[in-house]
Amino acid sequence: MQSDPPPSPDNNARPGGSVLRALWVCVGTVSLALGAVGVILPLLPTTPFVLLAAFAFARSAPRLRAWLTDNRVFGPIIMDWEARGVIAPRYKAMACTVMAAVLLGSVLGGLAWRLIVIQAICMGGAAAYVLSRPSGTRR
Fold this sequence. Notes:
Elements: H1 17-40, H2 47-58, H3 62-70, H4 75-84, H5 89-108, H6 113-132
Helix pairs in contact: 1-2, 2-3, 5-6
């Protein structure tokens, strides 16, 4: 009589693992799509979406993560962040510009002042974090 092999340690072996894996793949795919649009459309920041995609793919699809880190456009962003916590000056400028544009659009659009203050506090915190990260390029 042959015995069954031991269960695999991957995500699919756990109850609900395949559902969680599918959720992470969806998060990664949507994030990567938004990041790709951000390469073309400067109003959409690329870096946070690409980093989120790498994070999601690391938890669900190692081959997609490897493809992403090997990509000539997205790979350096991920590698800089993971190696040294670096955000390139270009991406810092883009992120802060987009946040300022959205805040200005809210003011010009007549959004309630309370919401504008909340938005300004949140975006100010995000901008402070982005600007506090080291700048640099790949070595």
